[in-house]
């Protein structure tokens, strides 16, 4: 049996959302292509055009151009702020979590809840350098931060997940 305890933090939430985003190519491209690249570039171009428009005197379109340009320019920061806001709004406990993994099931416990999940309920898992995500549905998962584990536990968890969870079909 492998047991881990951790405090789920806002950084864990952000890392989980980032890893989850990689499950869909369209979402990943929308995030990186538009939010991280295209929007700030378009915002910077809009600011330059807004400055050029000021030469001809003030026009209501200048305000609209500047407003839209600033939103586009700062869209990556607004996106991150919104994720942090979502984390705060969806918290239901103090963040303390405990997971126990054995051959038959997964036991979870927080300050407000306790549960058992059988392995067949886990549809697939995903991992990166920061955490594991155990999916019970396409958009519902248990995040397991690797920082809560030593290197041996990370390897044991990976082997257990590979043995007990069927590979992702996507």
What does this structure look like?
- This protein has 170 residues and is an alpha+beta fold.
- It folds into two domains: 2-8 and 93-164, Pleckstrin-homology domain (PH domain)/Phosphotyrosine-binding domain (PTB) (PH-domain like, Roll), CATH 2.30.29.30; 16-90, no CATH class.
- The chain is built from five helices and seven strands.
- The strands form two sheets. Strands 1-2-3-4 form a four-stranded antiparallel sheet, with helices on one face. A three-stranded antiparallel sheet has the order 5-6-7, covered by helices on one side.
- Helix 2 runs antiparallel to helix 3.
- It is elongated and about 75 Å long.
- The model has no long low-confidence stretch (mean pLDDT 88).
Largest sheet report: 4 strands, antiparallel
* DSSP strand count: 7
Question: Fraction of residues in helices?
Answer: 40-55%
CATH class of the largest domain: Mainly Beta
Query: What name does CATH use for the topology of the largest domain?
Result: PH-domain like
Low-pLDDT residue spans = none
Instruction: Assess the beta-strand content as a share of residues.
Output: 15-25%
Shape descriptor reads elongated
Quickly list its features.
170 residues, alpha+beta, PH-domain like, 2 domains, four-stranded antiparallel β-sheet, three-stranded antiparallel β-sheet, 5 helices, 51% helix, elongated
Summarize the structure.
The protein is an alpha+beta fold and 170 residues long.
SSE layout:
Layout: E1 2-7, H1 10-21, H2 25-54, H3 60-73, H4 75-90, E2 96-101, E3 105-110, E4 114-118, E5 124-127, E6 131-137, E7 140-145, H5 151-164
Antiparallel strand pairs: 1-2, 2-3, 3-4, 5-6, 6-7
Helix pairs in contact: 1-4, 2-3
């Amino acid at each position: 049996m492998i047991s881990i305890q951790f405090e789920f933090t806002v950084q864990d939430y952000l890392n989980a959302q980032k890893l989850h985003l990689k499950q869909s190519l369209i979402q990943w491209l929308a995030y990186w292509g538009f939010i991280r690249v295209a929007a700030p570039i378009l915002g910077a171009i809009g600011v330059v055009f807004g400055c050029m428009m000021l030469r001809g005197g003030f026009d209501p379109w200048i305000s609209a151009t500047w407003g839209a340009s600033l939103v586009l320019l700062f869209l990556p920061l607004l996106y991150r702020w919104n994720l942090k806001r979502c984390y705060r709004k969806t918290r239901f406990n103090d963040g303390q979590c405990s997971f126990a993994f054995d051959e038959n099931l997964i036991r979870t416990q927080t300050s407000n809840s306790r549960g058992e999940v059988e392995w067949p309920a886990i549809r697939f898992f995903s991992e990166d350098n920061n955490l594991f995500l155990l999916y019970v549905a396409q958009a519902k998962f248990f995040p397991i931060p690797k920082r809560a584990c030593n290197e041996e536990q990370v390897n044991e968890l990976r082997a257990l997940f590979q043995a007990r969870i069927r590979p992702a079909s996507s």
